[in-house]
Design brief:
Length: 320
């Protein structure tokens, strides 16, 4: 008879945007899995010490990175069998259920302690960044590999089903849906095209030149990025990533970094101003290297005035 135990884990996808790059805070935890792949801050809930799940998460993040978190929201619960990838005896099964959280911080305000490192989200999900045009990795590697997987189905119906899923998840041009981040990653996982699906094949370097993560933490990252992209449309979360005073260009660059696309500058400015999201401070930023730009701040009253006070993704994905 096999003895089974369940542990409640807490993991944090901590995101910042610095120098035009969306970054995630990682830690080195060699005891997870077979490799020393980057991991999210993670710990096991102590039922006696941690009064709430969120307080437990904040405690782990403080211990592992030195950060005091501000904005935090619960993201998702991950509980697949053997997700922790830890060895166990044939007579004992350890099931780890992880409650993941999304946290937003300003990177430069919180330098991490030794062992923690900020890494670009697109180092792990390179097919999600369209700001320099259509990612080369899509046509060079991702789509051909997925087409091969689709054609390898057991029946004509299964092949067609797979091709439809690929088309929807990885649709190009106007059909590219920025929010389907998790769907794209899970499709690659199902097709065994990322390292986490076949950890013994190290030569793949995580698949398509991307970096793998410990256990299922890249899935958590994909969930967090997709959630953030969706919330841009109806919640003012982007302001958690900006200093108290900012230019409209800085605001747009943070939105672009998270969405992975370029925006039409004039359309974006009109949308933000008409939506009453910001208000001018009367001060100018003289460190732009060119013409001084007006400094703005988030207008708190907009939360009471509008049901969905998000910045949205206006116009075509092209900056002018």
């Amino acid at each position: 008879m096999t003895d089974a135990s369940i542990q409640i884990g807490l993991s944090g996808a901590i995101v910042a945007v610095t120098d035009g790059q969306p970054r995630m805070l990682t830690v080195s935890r060699s005891e997870w899995g077979r490799t020393k792949d980057p991991a999210l801050p993670f710990g096991t809930l102590d039922a006696l010490t941690h009064r709430t799940l969120e307080l437990g998460l904040r405690s782990f993040v403080r211990e592992q990175t030195g950060l005091e978190l501000g904005y935090v929201e619960q993201l998702y619960t991950f509980g697949d069998r053997d997700r922790a990838d830890r060895p166990h005896s044939k007579d004992a099964l350890e099931r780890v259920v992880s409650v993941a959280y999304l946290a937003l911080v300003r990177e430069h305000d919180n330098p991490p302690m030794k062992g923690a490192e900020w890494r670009s989200c697109y180092r792990f999900l390179p097919w999600e960044d369209w700001r320099s045009g259509r990612p080369e990795v899509l046509d060079a590697a991702v789509l051909p590999a997925l087409e091969g997987w689709a054609d390898s189905g057991d029946s004509h119906i299964e092949c067609q089903r797979r091709r439809t899923r690929v088309e929807i998840a990885f649709g190009t041009g106007p059909r590219w849906d920025t929010e389907r981040v998790l769907e794209r990653y899970e499709l690659l996982y199902e097709a065994a095209l990322v390292l986490e699906a076949e950890p013994q094949r190290r030569e793949r370097d995580g698949g398509f030149g991307s970096r793998a993560m410990a256990v299922d933490h890249r899935r958590i990252l994909a969930t967090a990025l997709g959630r953030l992209r969706g919330k841009l449309k109806y919640r003012p979360v982007v302001f958690e990533l900006l200093p108290p005073e900012f230019t409209l260009l800085q605001l747009m660059q943070v939105v672009e970094a998270l969405a992975g696309i370029n925006l039409h500058k004039a359309n974006f400015r009109r949308l933000v101003e008409r939506g009453g999201l910001v208000e001018g401070t009367g001060r100018m930023n003289t460190e732009t290297g060119g013409r001084p730009a007006e400094l703005f701040q988030f207008r708190q009253d907009v939360v009471r005035e509008r049901i969905a006070p998000g910045v949205g993704l206006p116009g075509t994905p092209l900056r002018s």
